[in-house]
Each structure stands twice: as structure tokens, then as C-alpha cells.
Amino acid sequence: MKSYIKAYAHIQNNLVSLNGKVLFNEESEGFSEFSKAAYKALDTKYPKFFKMDNLSKLAFLAADVLLKQEILDPEKEENIAIVLSNNASSLDTDRKYQKSISDKNNYFPSPSVFVYTLPNICIGEISIKHRLYSENSFFIFEHFSAGHLFDYSSSLLATKKAEKVLCGWVDFDANKYEAFLYLVADKGELKHNREEIIRLYNYE
After folding, report:
1. What angle do CA 194, 200, 204 make, to 5 degrees?
2. pLDDT score recorded for residue 204
3. Are 172 and 122 in contact (CB under 8 A)?
4. Helix pair 31-41, 54-68: axis angle to 10 deg
5. Stretch 55-73: mean pLDDT, rounded?
6. Percent of the chain topping pLDDT 70
7. What is the C-alpha end-to-end distance of the chain, expressed in Å?
8. Where are the beta strands (DSSP E) in the chain?
9. Answer CATH for 4-201 from 3.40.47.10, 3.30.43.10, 3.40.50.1360, 3.90.1150.10
10. What does pTM read for this prediction?
11. Residue 154 phi/psi, 5° resolution?
């Protein structure tokens, strides 16, 4: 089965781009300020966004930029799988939660933080907003693995477990962040293979 990369998005260094075109760029002191500004500028419209952890905000913004182009029917359950990966898992949030329970004299575990101490929670946020009910997985690798993403997404399409697959790398650790997501479908202008995925990942 032939598949194609229909669109791709990057978020890094205070910049959001879609298919190589800059959508938003603003100098900010940190990700918190940048993400709020990007949310507003990109007309994201999802109030729960502000309660998310940083990893989920990063993944959600990148996915929203891509999926808006699909003009999804809000009344229809979409058969779009999600396959994400990163290096740090949910470490940024884990540190915050650990800090809330490490002081015996100020012991205050937060359920609102604890809920994000799994990296795949960001997939749930994306799925709720866009009504995605297909397969989903989150993998932890030392480095970006184009081969694994290609093999896994190709298998989902070949076995008809999904009509499209949202793939990529979403990493957040100590205010250092990087997102590269792309949508695989049966139509598109870019070939879906390992070499093209690597080229797009490195595209600036």
C-alpha cells in the first residue's frame, strides 16, 4: 500500500511552522509565555489547554496546526491513529510532582499534576479535541527514530487499523522543547519513507 506525507509541522525555538511556512514566531522568555501566545495567535480554542502540562501543550499545538487542515467533521469519529515518541518521557512533569511530595513538612501531592505523569496523556488531549478513536502509542527512544515511526505507521495503514496516522517526536525537558509531527495518508505530495521523514525532521 502506497502512503504519503500529507503535511508536517515543527515547533521549536519560539517558532511554529506548517509545511515549512512560519505560522507564528515570537520571542519569549520561556515555553509558558510562548505557548500562551501561540495558542491565541493560532486560534486554538480549547479552554482545557491551560490546565495541561508542558508536554501536552507542545503536542497539542503541533497536532492542532496539522489537523485543522483536514477540516474534520466534529460529529464524526475519525479513524486517525497517533504514534508519538520522545526522549524524556514525562520527566518535566515528574520533577514537579516529586517536588510536591518530597518535603514531609509541606506534603501536598497534586492530582492535577499527577495525571500528566505519563507521556501518552498528551495523546488523550489531542484525541478528545479532534474526536480520534483509533490506535495510539507513545514510544521512548534515545534519539528520533524515523525507521520505527515509518514501520509502525505503515503497518497500521496496511492492516486497515487506521485511515491516516499522526506521527512524530514531541520532547520537553526543563524548558527545552521540540515538536515534529507529520500526517501520513493515502494521498499527498511527499513520499512516505525513512529518508523523507529524516529530511523533514531536520528541515529548518
Report:
1. 150
2. 60
3. no
4. 20
5. 94
6. 98
7. 30
8. 4-12, 15-18, 21-25, 80-86, 136-140, 164-173, 176-185, 190-191
9. 3.40.47.10
10. 0.93
11. -65, -40
